[in-house]
Amino acid sequence: MFFVLSKIFWAIARPLNFLFLLALAAMLLARLGWHRIARMAIAFAIAMTALVGFTQLPDWLIYRLETTANYLPIPPDPYGIIVLGGGLDAQSAARKDDYHLGEAADRLVLALELKRRFPQARLVYSGGLATIAGEGIPETRAAENMMIALYGDTRGAEFEPDSRNTWQNAIFTARMLGEDRKKSWLLVTSAFHVPRALGCFRKAGMNVIAVPTDFRADEFSFPWLTGDMAGQFIKMSLFTKELIGLVVYRLTGKMDAFLPR
Fold it and tell me: Do the domain assignments include residue 218?
């Protein structure tokens, strides 16, 4: 139920969706005679669209998430590597049961780099289906297909295919590893996602060191303007989703701190 509610809420709270719905609401308010409130809503929607779409505000917000955690040095002999899903897909409209790289595919690439550096380390890929109805192919299938395409095998990787969000990544992986969860594990995920991932895995009783990748914030450049409206709204969506996730996970006891470091 938590997963379904979060998906429904996010369909409304996504910044571009929210501004569109706000504009529709303003039109309805104007028809009902609430002209002052309608003008305020339209002005807010226009101002936020300009602020998000044409400035580096989303970069600054994402940068704050990416640099919040205290990144510890990688130990010389980690017991294992955990990589969180979110950057691959195993199906598309044209090709089924394949692998397709997304923006966060850096996660698996870095995990494979670490596996090359530490061949003795266990490699665990955690990521299932993010759809509400649970239909489709787990992301672990895409990861497995990619490894086989690159190496001819999966490099001895283990797969956790049932998780649908970060909290389930943590508890399902911890359950799969048993007492080995207390050993030294490298946790690979996108930099903006590190605080929530650290909080969940520590709450699940795992001893993890964050290894960030997939940095999204562009370098800041005066006068901090940009013409990439679509890209800026994607970054704002990432920040908004993470912020909501951090608040909700903290309030529901899935993390012990709002911004785990």
Answer: no
